[in-house]
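Teaching assistant's notes for section 4

Start the section by putting this record on the projector. Ask students to predict, before seeing the second block, whether tRNA modification GTPase MnmE will look compact or extended. Collect guesses on the board.
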Amino acid sequence: MIFDTIAAKTTADGSSAINVIRVSGSDSFNIVNSVFKGPNLLKQKSHTVHYGHIQDKNNIIDEVMVSIYKSPKTFTREDVVEISCHGGNFIADEILKLLIAHGARMAQNGEFTKRAYLNGRLDLTEAESIMDLVNAKSHKQLQLANNQLKGDVKRLVDELQERILNIIANIEVNIDYPEYDDVLEMTNEILIPNIDILLNEIEQIIKESETGKLIRDGIKTVIVGKPNVGKSTLLNTLLKEDRAIVTDISGTTRDLIEADLNLDGVILKLIDTAGIRITKDVIENIGIHKTKKAIESADLILLVLNQSEELKDLDKELLELTKNKERIILGNKMDLGKKINLDNESIINISAKNKEGIEELSKAVKKLFIDEKILNSDRALLSNIRHIGKFKEVKQALLDAKKASINQIPIDFVEIDLRKAWANLGEITGQSSNEDLLDHLFSKFCLGK
Ligand code: GDP
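Reveal the predicted structure now:
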């Protein structure tokens, strides 16, 4: 596809040693060449770097290195030029203005990646993974994003589409050429086990995606406990150990602080209820209300008890409040002795102050949420909520197909549900139009008699 030529700074705002401006489109060489004093870029080999100056008429703006990449072996599959100029917003903005004056257009957010997709360089899942790659905060997140960029999710989807297509094609042949003996017979009875195999696999993939989603997005975790049990101390211990990135949620009254904590490769999105204070006298006050809300929305509760003293009413209330959630009970202040015992509940002994027991906590989190078997399996792990949503639609379409088959609905009607499942899968990678389906179908079966 031919698009206009776009330009944007690819490095972040702020001061840095170097900024890179990317220009992509059929006019990119001409545009940059017209403001570049140095070797004639139109005469240079692809994938080479050139020294020179960016000039506005005779005014030098900056001393730069220019990298040129001729289509199609480029990120967007278009002609691409990258100008490495000195850092700072001013220089980059001046160069951008000049490029725009010479015919480029300012790129929108994500437009280079969008072109890479539209020009067939990346499928949708690969394009999406680039964002994950940039945002990764742990090795496991990085691994997940890299696998997706390598095309793991695309391969999984392609393979499932292929298998559904096979069934569709067999139905088509049966409908169009019922008189041929050599055509594989397709009946509801034959369809049902075939759909079942696919369904089982899709269900398994959806189940496994929980792990993927938690790795990608982190585990929303809330620390709760009555005053003085050591919540803040625990938070500080955790944060210091792992150099977590602490971010205030803007727009709130600062009573919720969010921090990303990397616990041995698994990200806990810690919601610290720092500003939420529960007082003994006024249990039904704002504090407990907010705590309840925080508990409801969390994936994981870290309930902190002071194990060196008997359980108080507030402890019991919090135990009750969190009993239906995934929770880990922490018996803090282990250095002061143990006075509590919970029936049928395991407690992890820690000392937040002395930084003891954190390893056990990390193991317990993993045990609750991360299935190592899934992580080490060869199958692609879904983590993107859009992909997971589509898989759920595929599952529904296959369930409909199975139900129709069981009810002895004619197979050409069952085919409608199968086509839907095929199309839902294709929406994940961006290959789902009817034309795509027909192309695939006819490339597989030479029905052109
Ligand atoms: P919060 O109100 O639950 O946030 O409790 P804090 O973190 O402010 O801790 C209350 C008090 O308990 C502070 O004086 C801490 O130093 C102390 N503390 C926290 N953890 C421990 C621990 O593991 N052992 C001992 N001995 N004291 C602790």
